[in-house]
Design goal:
Layout lengths: L1 H41 L3 H7 L2 H4 L12 E11 L2 H14 L3 E11 L5 E12 L3 H11 L2 E11 L1 H27 L3 H33 E10 L13 H74 L1
Parallel strand pairs: 1-5
Antiparallel strand pairs: 1-4, 2-3, 3-5
Helix pairs in contact: 1-6, 1-7, 4-5, 6-7
């Protein structure tokens, strides 16, 4: 009994894994068949048509097609305005008025090439997909200039259909594993089936989460807006020569130079000179004393040297 139950659970899990991966394997073949399906249909026989509509084929569990195409539509804009902070607040209010919400927003200072800074803002909002065009038009009307505009569309109908098929197969496996666990009497058998059931339910939750993400992405479109200040896009302008300004800069530089010299003199008199005297005077007297001693010893050696030379001469005489 235990061996049969193990074999049954193994076969059931093998079927589930094969069903979850069959969509990815069969998809390229289905796309290739689509190119010549019309040519084959023109020459098909009556027996073949009758075979296609037989009970064996009609009873297959084919995935249900979604009622309409599932398309994710997003947009991004780069606009130039006079007041980025105010425009960012207006876009946030626009999203809320359309039953949307703000995903993120940021206001910061941008350093310009010619020096100085200019405010810049980034904001990301989500609005209902059916209101995407209205939201874009409202933002463009508020902008002074639209530097860049991108609208993307991503058809996820096939991906969503594949997930729905996997979900049905996993839920069927969950029901069968539940029945097997209820019928099992041995503790080891119950634990084995329970572990398999936990893994199947985990896959079910993962697929449901991905399907919810797709549904929310289709229902709510994302708009990313980069808001640039007018002064940030102005061309660099070189002003004319102003002698008064040059003279002013020269006088300021001269004053700062004289101040530096005066500060250096004050530091020398009040700090460097006293410290130098405290250290230099004792050192001077020590050096002078050492020099005097060395000089005295040298004179004594010179005086003693002639006397030593005359003594042998006198003895010889």
């Amino acid at each position: 009994m235990k061996k049969k139950l193990f074999v049954l659970v193994f076969l059931l899990l093998t079927f589930v894994l094969a069903a979850c991966s069959v969509n990815a394997v069969a998809q390229p073949a289905m796309e290739e068949e689509g190119f010549y399906a019309g040519d084959v249909a023109a020459g098909v026989s009556a027996e073949y048509v009758e075979y296609e509509t037989s009970e064996d084929v009609a009873s297959l569990d084919l995935p249900d097609a979604p009622p309409e195409r599932m398309i994710i539509k997003n947009a991004s804009l780069d606009i130039v305005v006079s007041d980025p902070a105010q425009t960012m607040d207006e876009i946030a209010q626009l999203a809320e008025s359309l039953d949307g919400y703000v995903v993120s927003s940021r206001l910061y200072q941008r350093y310009l090439d010619g020096g100085g800074t200019a405010p810049q803002a980034n904001i990301t909002v989500r609005v209902p997909a059916e209101s995407l065009d209205d939201a874009l038009k409202a933002i463009e009307d508020e902008a002074g200039t639209v530097e860049n505009k991108i609208i993307t569309s991503d058809d996820i109908t096939q991906d969503y259909t594949d997930l729905a098929s996997q979900l049905r197969n996993l839920e069927a496996a969950e029901a069968q594993l539940t029945e097997i666990m209820d019928a099992a009497t041995d503790t080891d058998e119950v634990l084995n089936v329970y572990n398999q059931l936990v893994r199947v339910r985990e896959q079910i939750e993962i697929i449901k989460g991905r399907m919810r993400y797709y549904e929310q992405s289709v229902a709510l479109s994302k708009i990313k807006v980069s808001i640039i200040a007018d002064e940030a896009v102005q061309p660099l302008q070189i002003g004319g020569w102003q002698p008064a300004g040059v003279a002013k800069d020269a006088i300021e530089t001269m004053i700062r130079t004289l101040q530096f010299i005066a500060d250096a003199g004050i530091w020398f008199v009040l700090c460097v000179l006293p410290v130098g005297l405290l250290i230099g005077l004792p050192l001077y007297f020590v050096v002078r004393w050492v020099m005097r001693i060395r000089k005295r010893k040298k004179e004594e050696q010179i005086t003693a040297s002639p006397a030593g030379d005359e003594t042998p001469s006198a003895k010889g005489a």
